[in-house]
Amino acid sequence: MQHKSIDGLHVVCVHGAGAGGWEWGIWARTLNVRGFGVIAPDLMPAAAGVVATQFADYRKQVLAWCSATTAPPVLVGASLGGLLALSVAAEIRPAALILVNPVPPLGVAGGLVRTWPALVAWSRTRSRAGTRGSIPDADDAARMYAYRRWRDESGAVLNAAQRGIAIDVPTCRMLVLASADDRDVPCATTRALAGLLGADFEKIAGASHVGPLLGRSAPTVASRVCDWLAALPSPGADLTAP
User: Fold this and answer.
1) CATH architecture under which domain 10-230 falls
2) Can you tell me the distance from the alpha carbon of 239 to that of 95, in angstroms, rounded to the nearest whole number?
C-alpha cells in the first residue's frame, strides 16, 4: 500500500496469522481519506521457508517497518499482529498504539489454546464454509476476498505466541478494541489486557475476531479509530503525559 506522509504522521499496520496487508484495506482507505499515511506490508517467511519462521523473524520485520518512517509511527496490530506490535512498542516508542483483538502476551491468560503443526496449511485447507464461519459478520464479497487470500502460517510462530511472549508496557497512548463475539481471544481477556496496559478500551458489538477489519462494522470501527487519533496531541507533543 502507498506510503505517504501527512504532517509527519504514519500508521503502520501489522496483520494477523494466515493473512496479509490486504486485510487492512478498509482501514487504509478510511485513514487515507482522513489524512493519515498508511503502510500495511505482508509479513514474510524466513529464507528457509514458512516452517523455519520464528516469532523473532516477524518481530524484526515490524521493527524495520517502524524504523523506516520519518517520525514515530502510529502502530496498529490485529490478532497475532497485535502481539507483534505490542512486543516492539517499548523499543519503537510509537506515537500511539492500537490493538485489535490481540493475542495476549505472557501473564494474560484466556486466548485459544491448542498445539499447532509445523506448517499450518491454511492456503490448502481453506474453504468457503470455513471462511463464512470465521467471519459471520461479513458480507459475501468480503468473505470471498478473504477466502482467496488466506495463506499458510508457521506453527512455530503460533505456538510461541500461545506459550506467551514477554513484553514491556509501553508509555504511549493506547487504544484496545475487543470484539464482543470473538471466539479466539475472548472479549474479557482483551479487556484485562487493556487494564494491564492502562489503555483506552472499546467493545465492538456483534463483531467476530476478524470482523473489525473485514466485517460490516469495519468502516465504522476505522472511522472511530480516526476520531481517537485525531483527538491525540499533535506530532511532537508529549504523548506520555496523562
Assistant:
1) 3-Layer(aba) Sandwich (3.40)
2) 7
